Fold this sequence. Notes:
Layout (H helix, E strand, L loop, with lengths): L1 H46 L15 H7 L26 H6 L47 H19 L26 E7 L1 H13 L4 E7 L10 E6 L3 E7 L9 H9 L9 E4 L5 H4 L3 H12 L15 H7 L3 E5 L7 H17 L5 E4 L10 E2 L2 E2 L13 E2 L16 H4 L1 E2 L1 E2 L2 E2 H16 L17
Parallel strand pairs: 1-4, 1-5, 5-6, 6-7
Antiparallel strand pairs: 2-3, 3-4, 8-9, 10-11, 12-13
Amino acid sequence: MVCSISIKTAVLLVGMVVLVFAGLSMQKELEQMKDRGAKNVATVQIKAAQGTIHDHSLKQKNGNDMKNDLNEDEEFPPDQAFQVEDDEEATEIDNQMEAQKTKPPKILDPATLNINDFRLCRITPTPQLGKETVQMRGLALDMTYQCGGNLYNRFADLLEHVILEKAAEGFMWGKRNTILPNPKNTPEKSKKQRAVLIMGNSHTRQLATALLCQHKQQITKVTSLYAMPQHPINGVLQIEMKHNTIIYVAVNCPFVYSHDWDKTLEETILKRPLASLDAIVMGKFNTFSESTGTSFYKMMMDYQKQFPNIPMDFQHIPGPTVQQVAKKYKGNLIYVSMFSKYGVSDYLQTKEEMNQLQKTKQRNNIKYIHGRRYIKEVETIQGQTALYNTRFPPLHECATDTRHVVGTCVTNVTSFRFANGHRCMGNRGGYPDLVAWDVVTALHKMLSSSTTTDDEETETPIQ
Length: 463
């Protein structure tokens, strides 16, 4: 009897010891995951900041300071404080395991994917930090905001990690051979012409530049419409491509600042009805109040003097909103917000407007894409980097506004440019590549009624 009790007691004690060790092991694993999550965000962001990272929430600046921060062709930020609301994709949860529950199942193993298979806009030869920017041949738009050096390469490491993780959810993201889908079983000469208009500000131009760079081998002809010698990029570019495709690029374009913007584009600039376009991709337009004192403002005034017969009134008429474009154009419409943090409020407002259009007007051919959907803003709590909860590994800010000299990622978190500058592009691509792939994905889905199997995939929907 005594022996039997001793054996039971021993078994119970052994079981308790096993449970204790299992609990300690799980706790240690969770702590290691948290440490890795913090390090993933902090390695590039904090190490480069040289010392203590300060709270980088944007504060009100006076007008002179803000204008000094501006790039020569960028919009003047809104007058209100730049403390913007994060959208639902940027919600903080201090448990990385919770984030794992929301991730779609992987179709492919990221380890089996090759980054060289993706259509990144790789600048060649490699830009050298501090040197003049590389002039690439065959591009429709000049490649500005080039970056190099260790900071850029660290960012590129994270960029490639994000690409492989997201690509594991589907087959074609970042790999499509054409911007628009090709009709099935149709001879090249018989293919119906397809056309897309891209319009917005300089962030939209970065998006268009990356998109066209990814498919530069397909460009056959570039024509500049209504450009001025001193402002060669502010007219409308007509880019003809293989497969009977035309891409119109109207970025920082003066002709949209009119109540008759649609008629001006149709009758004077494009010389075709908007209804003949297969899609319009639009971003934010600069405003008069944002631009006073900048070279963008001067360019607008020059255009109004040069073309008095074309209705333009930059001082009093803003560029068209999504609702105004949707009223004039019933075709496929994609809105892409800015890469800048201060553009989030505009994205949230436009997103709500587009949701209303879908409900009240039954528009099922409109989509919106968050231009910062892959960027995790680093929040600081008592000097410690908070954990992240995103569907993809986080990309930190990598901004620059040096246009003609190769720069690198801004590391001063108190600088307005840190979260609001244009995005670095280099020999390993850049952030605009990802958003350009989202646009291509949306275009293929919206125009997929007669496409090849190139469009068949499983992918999380674009908002």
